[in-house]
Specification:
Blueprint lengths: L5 H6 L4 E2 L1 E7 L4 H11 L7 E7 L5 E6 L2 H4 L2 H6 L4 E7 L14 E5 L2 E11 L2 H10 L10 H10 L5 H9 L4 E9 L3 E5 L8 E5 L2 E5 L3 H6 L2 E5 L4 E6 L2 E6 L8 E2 L1 H6 L5 E2 L2 E2 H15 L6 E4 L5 H11 L7 E3 L17 H6 E3 L1 H4 L3 E6 L6 H12 L4 E6 L12 E2 L7 H4 L2 H8 L3 E4 L2 H8 L6 E2 L1 H4 L14 H8 L1
Parallel strand pairs: 15-25, 18-21, 21-22, 22-24
Antiparallel strand pairs: 1-23, 2-5, 2-11, 3-4, 3-5, 6-7, 7-8, 8-9, 9-13, 10-11, 10-12, 13-14, 16-17, 19-20
Helix pairs in contact: 6-7, 10-11, 10-17
Length: about 475
Amino acid sequence: MDSRTVSREVELDKPREACGVFGIWGHPDAVRLTYYGLYALQHRGQESAGIATTQGQGINIHKGMGLVSEVFDEAALKDQEGTAALGHVRYSTTGSSVVVNAQPLVIRYRKGALALAHNGNLVNARQIRDKLEKEGSIFQTTLDTEVLAHLIARYGQGDLEEALSGSLKVLKGGYAFGILTEKVLIGIRDPHGIRPLSLGKLGNSWVLASETCAFDTVGAETARDVNPGEMVVIDDNGVRSIQAVKPGRRVFCIFEYIYFARPDSNLDGLNVHAVRKEMGRQLAREAPADADLVTGVPDSSLSAASGFAEEAGIPYEIGLVKNRYVGRTFIQPDQKLRALGVRLKLNALEKVVRGKRVVLVDDSIVRGTTSRHIVQLLREAGAQEVHVRISSPPYRYSCYYGIDTSASAELIAAQKGITDIERLVGADSLAYLSTEGLVRAIGRGKADYCLACFNGDYAIDVSADAGKFALETSRLRS
């Protein structure tokens, strides 16, 4: 087996988010606040990190592979002085995890320099790129983000806002962009509102972030969400709003509530922890279990597990402990020891689970391998029974709007029925939350959310070549 991080091995069995974006305008400590903001968004991407800054003349950039703490030290932060900054943490959903694909991207065109940071995925990036390359454009990365950079240059005869408005009319997909120039900080959200982006206020400064937990970290107050298709333009005069693209069918990514977002974030006015707890309650109503205790898989499932326990009247216990100090560069020595990735990441509390009938609550099952290992951990610790309850519906379809998921052939719920999955993971029983129960737990209409990973109803048409490495395979064939 190749050298891999333990966390990467375990988390392959979860959908992975694209990135986190953080930007601030008009603050003397812009780079340090962005550093802290990216720390708060680290859960959204651990492959690379970068910060672009400006003091009104030129744009400086520092980025690299790894966690925020690995990419930035005191010297790097001092070199990045400025009163405005744009930061990014990345998990790749389009393009390989290599330094050339780290963001923000800094480009220079006839109107000056700008930095681009992107959360999401453009489903028509390959078609646009093929067209631009035939017309003479030269691309430096395999990022779909770079497509927007070239479109800006193409539409750049007028001012930046006009160039962006023209460019956005061509793009399709789920996206939240942060753009920094010497004169403005801009935030843009896709017309369907698939990917999150919020606006905050810190004294006289304005802040953009993928999640509101980043505002809490830097001491900012949440102002509002950026609306679908909206472009917010921030400069020394304040904030202006432009409806850059006509809003489409609003379909916010429901997996932000299920798994991606931090529980202390608020999305569309709803607290993530409260929503997850209600998912657990609804799951207990739909799929009760005769058990002695309820436990959750750290960390994203703990809120749902506590809700399940409260609704079921069963004690909630910490049955699994997460090792938060497993290094990212831990090398697994042999293919035969692959399961150690889970054991090093999680450990069962024997004194809690021994002789007990346990309800194990998790947020999702993608491939099933990690669920099988966790059930085995509980049994080896002496659990008498293990009843698995999933606080989302079966994950059957790939996402193309900014989530890295396995191909359908690798999604266990796309290939097997619930009874077969139950047998594969070794559970005494297995049940999922229904789609109706999931929507009811959030408390909004079903039409307000993207449920494509559960039902295959894609709000935006997806071509067959819209996968993660489409731009790389296109380059290889050209």
